[in-house]
Predict the 3D structure of the following.
Amino acid sequence: MHHDPEEANRTADDLARLIVADITSTTHPCGLVKIGTGYHHLDTFERVSLEAAAAAHTLTGTPVAIHLELGSAGDLVLAELSKNSIPPTSTVLGHVGRNPDDGYLLELASSGAFLCFDGPSRANHPTDWRTPALIELLATRGHLHQVLVGGDTTTAAARSVTSGPGMPGVLQHFRNTVTQRIGDEAWETITVANPARALTLRPR
């Protein structure tokens, strides 16, 4: 609904060329490919978009992040990306905490993909209270090095660095809640080492 209807008819090759042009721009290059997918399904345009993202990754080594609508369809996304030869280790699955199913999250983690819990700075996601326990589960099952956290900073309140919840909510209150379960060293892994690996450009 946000684009010219003609854009819906673009092929994966068309989209890949546009994405690569953004990545290789000499004025404002980007370092991440972001694709959004729907609630518990992938439509035709989303599959084309994922194919384009995979092609751009293959050409540039740029990591790919996925908006999973309410944390759903991560398994479908990984299958689609695998079909297009993009490794899960180059993929960040976003909003996973909004679908707090232990078995589902462990299945996603078993692929090797990064799992991003990015709701602590939002006020309207009723599943966020489960996030510390989910992070602890993943850590105890050997997936600590795949966990990311963020603020989903699409609103002014979520971007705030001086008031709550915003970034103070993530880096202070949420940090304290998580470290009580898994310790300071694990928090450092999640907030420093993991994003450094997840967002690394891998030139081809």
About this structure: The chain has eight helices and five strands. Residues 169 and 184 are 17 Å apart (CA to CA). The first helix runs from residue 12 to 23.
